[in-house]
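Repro:
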Amino acid sequence: MSKRIILLFLISAAAAVAVWAVVHFTAANRNSLGQSGNALSNLTNSTNAYAWAEAVEKVKADRGELAGASGAVEIPPELRHYSDRHWFLATQVAEIDKYNVQTCQDYVDLAGMIERGELVAVPAVTDTYVLFGVGAKADEGVFTKYKDDHRIELYNEAQLSDAYRRLDDKRSNLQSEIAALKVQSGRLKKRDRTKQSEFQKQITARQQELTSADEDKALLDQFYGQPDSRQTLFRDYESLQALAKNFGGRSYNMDDPLDRQAMKVNMLGSLRPEALKILEEVASTYHQQFDRPLPVSSLVRPEQYQHALNKVNRNAVLIDTPPHSTGLAFDIDYRYMRAAEQTFVMAELARLKREGRIEAIRERNANYHVFAFINGTRPSDELITASLDKASAAVEEAEQTPRKRAYVKSKSQKDRAAKARPPRSYIREKRKRRH
């Protein structure tokens, strides 16, 4: 009888622990999802998932002082911005040019680097570090090719036909809706100005949707209309499909939005071996000192992904292109570190920089940007100086791009508004009649 009671007690205790773990993990995952995106997608079992959630909790745990406080932090000279603001990027560009390092513009390029073994998978969680924010902006959308500042959706032949059919149906429906709204608006009496205004708003909105659909169709025609370009895009799709069938011991369905997002996140969880070695070294010393996992917020980033990040992080384009697209760069998140932790990490990075093994800087967006040199040797000042023009041009172009986009968007909005408004002569005539 006593054995049975003990057995029941053990079973009850085990069940209670299991329930606590599930609730605890779910809460941690929900609270951290905004910063880590779909980071759990590359965890293959509940044990790893729980380990990741537990690591995130340790990263965010209360230290008894204001998280990320920098008032008491002395930034070492090695991690400060250079007097010439282009020197930092030029140093990394010099290394990239010196070894002709392959970069990735989009997920197609990234898949090629992974398949060739140039990049290695970085576990989402280990004893010494945790991926905290990697892939946070990966979406569920169709894989695209980034070319000439255009995002071209990748399809096989059957999917391309479906895409054209959907666009044609959408355009046809919008045209019918616009025509119907115009008829209804025309039946209103002149004094029904409020209703006329409402109809005009609906018509304008549908016309903008129709313009967008027309632009999407024109983009498909431009890149899929030429036989050579069409076959190239089909091959790009096939290369991603081949990776999806067996990537990290898991298969992904490219027709499933959630699988597409998970695959993108896992692809972004990659680094070159030289950079991973540095990451592991810094993480090991940090964990040994503070018994916390080092939070790593970014690894490889294609240029296409950089543009998505630029909407929330201006540095993503200004200083991270092309370094992150090589797989030689990673970011460490210091938001939750107390002053002693920040000082320790910066001292480690400063030491590695003095040894000529990395380039590093303390960014203002709560990250330490780290770039690993391939042979553990910093490029000569002559090579860096020779790269200054390229770095300066890249920074200036990145600074001008938001202004150009804002101008184009503003001009486009004004043009659409002008088309939606009746001619001035009509307005004058209408006023005369009213008077």
